[in-house]
Amino acid sequence: MSSRSLRPPRSRCSRWAAFADIDITNGGSARGSLALILSFVVFVAIALPLDRSSTASQQLALSLLAWAFLGVALALQPGAIRIQIVALVAVATVLECVGSLLWGAYTYRLGNLPLYVPAGHGLFYLSALRAASLPLLRRHARAIVIAVTGGASAWMLYGLIARPLPDLLGFVTWAIFIRFIVRGRYPLLYAISFAMTTALELYGTGLGIWRWSPVLPVLMLPAGNPPTGIGAGYAAMDALTRRIVARIERARHPEPAVVEAASPISS
Questions:
Q1: Cβ-contact 92, 121 below 8 angstroms
Q2: Is residue 193 part of a domain?
Q3: pLDDT tens string 31-45
Q4: What 3-state class would DSSP assign to 210?
Q5: Distance of CA 86 to CAs 35, 128, 226, 238, Å?
Q6: pLDDT per residue over 63-74, tens digit each?
Q7: Phi-psi region of 111 (alpha: psi -120 to 50; beta: other; left: phi over 0)
Q8: Whole-angstrom Cα distance, residue 82 to residue 95?
Q9: Under DSSP, is residue 211 helix (H, G, I), strand (E, B) or coil?
Q10: How far apart, in whole angstroms, are the C-alpha atoms of residue 219 and residue 85?
């Protein structure tokens, strides 16, 4: 009997609670996770209103604080988590440069890419991973995923029907989110990150820190401010980040080649 057959079958319910390829709980307790999440929420609640009327130099000071916060948070994480967060920050920064500075799908208040944004992506992703590791949320993973998916669907329909222009970008990104919920490996993480992203987008666009273009350049696709399904972005970035990290790990620790011994030549 093979060792594979001795493994207990993975229950269907366990898929709803899956959140990471690695044991993130090694990086701290549930209390530590709550402290990080609360600190991130407080930081965003204070920093974004300050940036509402900041100058470029004042925005730079906020950025230094954000990077310091991220550095301290990463120092408390296991090495594997640090690699994953750094990879996510790199991916998100490239997408921000393309989406905002080159494509013009959305623009920030000063017409730049605030330097606190990449650090904010790292803090956001780490907070989402930590939230998805909380025992209370994992015990109710199925209910949370269903509730967020239902809310996302209602929000998408509102964007299509009730806005002056139908939010077609919201519909497209909602469809991507549903794909990850149905076929993805970490539905609880996707649901949590979708809810967090939606709240952050409503807060940031409401303050005027950034604004989405009513019609996407080139594609000519109407979009809400914010698009209703934009929370799917973190599901896609999570999947891309995991692929990048996996390739890095394979490059750092290549599997030894199997060399078959030549059979002796009989005389």
A1: yes
A2: yes
A3: 999 999 999 999 999
A4: strand
A5: 21, 15, 26, 12
A6: 999 999 999 999
A7: left
A8: 20
A9: strand
A10: 31
Q: Extract the tokens encoding 143.
A: 């209910």
Q: What is the CA radius of gyration of the chain?
A: 21
Any idea which residue has 């730049």 for tokens?
A: 112
Residue 95 vs residues 103, 148, 233, 240: alpha-carbon distances, Å: 10, 25, 10, 12
Peptide bond before 114: cis, by omega within 30 degrees of 0?
no
* 5 belongs to a structural domain: no
DSSP calls for 85-135: HHHHHHHHHHHHIIIIIIS-SEEETTSS--THHHHHHHHHHHHHHHHHT-H
Q: What are phi and psi of 17, to 5 degrees?
A: -95, -5
13 found inside a domain: no
Distance between CA atoms of residues 225 and 40, nearest Å: 23
* Residue-level length of the chain: 267
* Tokens linked to 88: 């996510």
Give me the number of domains the chain comprises: 1
Task: Domain of residue 224: give its range.
Answer: 28-250
Q: Is the pLDDT of residue 9 over 50?
A: no
Helix, strand, coil distribution of the chain in percent, nearest 5: 70, 5, 30
Q: Which is it for the CA torsion 190, 138, 14, 152, positive or negative?
A: negative
Q: Which of 193, 133, 186, 254 is nearest to 18 (CA)?
A: 186
| pLDDT for the residue 16 | 60
Residue 162 placed within a domain: yes
Cα–Cα distance, 24 to 80 (Å, whole number): 9
**94 within 8 A of 244, measured Cβ to Cβ:** no
The answer to whether 171 and 46 are in contact (CB under 8 A) is no
